[in-house]
Amino acid sequence: MKTIFHPASERGHVNFGWLDSHHSFSFGHWHNPEKMHFGALRVLNDDIVKGGAGFGTHPHDNMEIVSIPLSGALAHKDSTGTAESINTGDVQIMSAGSGLTHSEFNASKTETVNFLQIWVFPKKMNITPRYDQKTFSADGRNNQWQVVVSPDEKDGGVWINQDAKFSLAEIEAGKTLLYKNHFPGSGVYFFVIEGKGNIGGTTVGKRDAVGVSESDETNIYADTNSTVLAIEIPMTF
Question: What is the pLDDT of residue 237?
């Protein structure tokens, strides 16, 4: 087993007033040559956007872009004709493919929204742009992994153009949950949304992350009630 530890305190940080963002990997105004990506995982931003503010219309291509609201809601519009509200409990993905434009704003004029913005390098280039969004009940992740993103729609998650799976788990204090890889040679980036515990032998707390590779399974132990996002990803692409 090979592990890397990304403590929350060492993430990149920018605050533009309307946007307060922490970066697990190099992004925008923050660059760290040792944190460019983990396999095909390119971006994991923890964004807080003030009421009424957001990201104006801008382009993307050949990237899989996942948004997971942790609190609040986002108003999304894109050039595919999609106009949706993305609420807490939802998971959204855009397969940018050959190119699209989109905007994302806080759906509230007064309350902040906190969401994870995650980018994954695609498996196939220049596909027709695609949008998907689903709502997931937290009951489906109590002491178990709930798949929310997958290339196999039979898993119940939103579809991704990559051999990657995103899974969420809410683990009770004192319990251990085993994660078993789905793809040969893949790695898993575990991001602690809430709580503290131990992942693959590394002590972790809120917003810490551990990347695990060269292993087919990983134990996650929760010291306190914890919410963990597992991003299984190709290590070569």
Answer: 84
